[in-house]
């Protein structure tokens, strides 16, 4: 009997260690390197964005504020005036490029997460949401947007479209794989971003949406880059899609540089204008590094 009990105890210990090891493996599939949960309750841009430093090419001071309308701690709120789009004069959204030092100089895979609340949307014809960016180190990396797509950068933002349909909106090099423009998940553009996976996720007005963007850059000379995009509306199941066989860079010195905060209605024509006076609220920004050798994960 003593021998039998001892064996049971040993077996239980082994099973417990195995469970712990599996949990440890799951936790180590990615490592969080940077987080901003909330911002100060302020309208001063320098105060609001101090935890995003260093940041570059910032615009839209009149749209930024820190508010507690839908959370206990202040979220970064962006105001879009009714009718506003990229050609509007004020209260049309805002943006900046943030390069946290924790990202380093050689990141080829990254997970970016944040929570966004849509207030009084009217999604209209579409608009931009934050994502990742990269390319060379320095000014050349801040150029892939607004119809500019030089060979020094790439950007992987999201867009909302009509009725809250979501997509990956990617400024990537034109030398994609043969047949890229004919893919079922691609709406190709000659001079603007490529629309990938439109409608495979959906954003919801009047609720918190948790966004995940995971990118793994291609090896130079190959079309083997991958992006996974997920959205979870509070209280609902997670929606995800993956886009593979992508080329984000043509040069070995191009890496992921940080997050591209970018949000506005547009499109560059008045027909893209905000249907209502509305706001978004952003909180719980996170950057994670996938573990070495891991594939695209949730």
UniProtKB/TrEMBL annotation:
> Keyword Transmembrane: yes or no?
no
Signal peptide extent: 1-21
Record keywords, A-Z:
Signal
Which InterPro entries has this protein been placed in? Polysacc_lyase_14
Q: Where is the Polysaccharide lyase domain?
A: 70-285
**Which domain of life does this protein belong to?**
Eukaryota
Instruction: Report what the protein is called.
Output: Polysaccharide lyase 14 domain-containing protein
**Gene source species:** Elysia chlorotica (Eastern emerald elysia)
